[in-house]
Amino acid sequence: MSTWGIIGGTGLTELDGIELLGEDWPETPFGRPSAPLVHGRMGSEEVVFLARHGKPHRIPPHRVNYRANLWALQAAGVQQIVAVNAVGGIHPRLTTGSFCVPDQIIDYTWGRASSFFEDDLEHVVHVDFSWPYDAQLSARLGALLQARDLSYLQGGVYAATQGPRLESAAEIVRLERDGADLVGMTGMPEAALARELALPYACLALVVNPAAGKSSEVITMASIEAVIAQGMQQVKQVLSELIAA
Ligand code: HPA
């Protein structure tokens, strides 16, 4: 038996097939997490679900209290985390509605509280972040996407941008030149904080739009929401299978 942490992004505020055990909204040394932690069971596994943007969805990416979120999950006994992120697709295979399980990340965010050691020079730890995502967990996610015959890219470089606006086309050209395959606003500092806590962490990214300049169409919230509605159903199924396995 193990305890799973699931961080739901835009469009994922609850899980399917979970036997609810209760909710709590703990105080941490960094404040409160984005939303109450939802504790549940799936088969013999325990699950703690957290809505990254709050419930209802109100907290923009640059205002998420990532430190409180990660701290609270670990304090709740979580042993591994799957983060769900809605992203823009840069790589040609990352078309709208497809998935990516990235294996690398580049951080373009700024001004976010991005370490548990920020004010604590005495105990500062320079964690190894060469491979930001847990390889085993990522491989399991990929296998489940494949088994469902979903379109996905195994591995890829996640560019974490500041938001809340979307990028300019020139910014996407730059990210692509840097090697980025997908772009989102919430991948960092979340991944680094999980590493500081030594929590295995993997990302399941749903492509909800072509990145800026990759299509002639204007990116609208309405078009993104339509993709999210369908894509997050598939995410829920993959997560149930991951946890129940
Ligand atoms: N850019 C950044 N973040 C995003 C995007 C995007 O195109 N789509 C969803 N989140």
From TrEMBL:
Keyword set includes tRNA-binding: no
A Pfam entry, by short name: PNP_UDP_1
Chain ranges of the Nucleoside phosphorylase domain: 5-244
Binding positions for phosphate per the UniProt entry: 10, 52-53, 186
One of the GO BP terms on file: purine ribonucleoside salvage
UniProt entry keywords in alphabetical sequence: Glycosyltransferase, Purine salvage, Transferase
Known pathway: Purine metabolism; purine nucleoside salvage
Domain of life where this protein originates: Bacteria
GO cellular component: cytosol
Presence of keyword Transferase: yes
EC number, UniProt record: 2.4.2.44
GO molecular function, one term: S-methyl-5-thioadenosine phosphorylase activity
Catalytic activity, reaction form: S-methyl-5'-thioinosine + phosphate = 5-(methylsulfanyl)-alpha-D-ribose 1-phosphate + hypoxanthine
InterPro entries: MTAP, Nucleoside_phosphorylase_d, Nucleoside_phosphorylase_sf, Purine_phosphorylase-2_CS
Site (Important for substrate specificity): 167, 221
Positions with a binding annotation for substrate: 185, 209-211
Transmembrane regions: none
Coiled coil spans: none
Subunit structure of this chain's protein: Homotrimer.
Additional information: Although this enzyme belongs to the family of MTA phosphorylases based on sequence homology, it has been shown that conserved amino acid substitutions in the substrate binding pocket convert the substrate specificity of this enzyme from 6-aminopurines to 6-oxopurines.
Family: Belongs to the PNP/MTAP phosphorylase family. MTAP subfamily.
Functional note: Catalyzes the reversible phosphorylation of S-methyl-5'-thioinosine (MTI) to hypoxanthine and 5-methylthioribose-1-phosphate. Involved in the breakdown of S-methyl-5'-thioadenosine (MTA), a major by-product of polyamine biosynthesis. Catabolism of (MTA) occurs via deamination to MTI and phosphorolysis to hypoxanthine.
Protein name in UniProt: Probable S-methyl-5'-thioinosine phosphorylase
Organism from which the protein derives: Halopseudomonas sabulinigri
Lineage: Bacteria, Pseudomonadati, Pseudomonadota, Gammaproteobacteria, Pseudomonadales
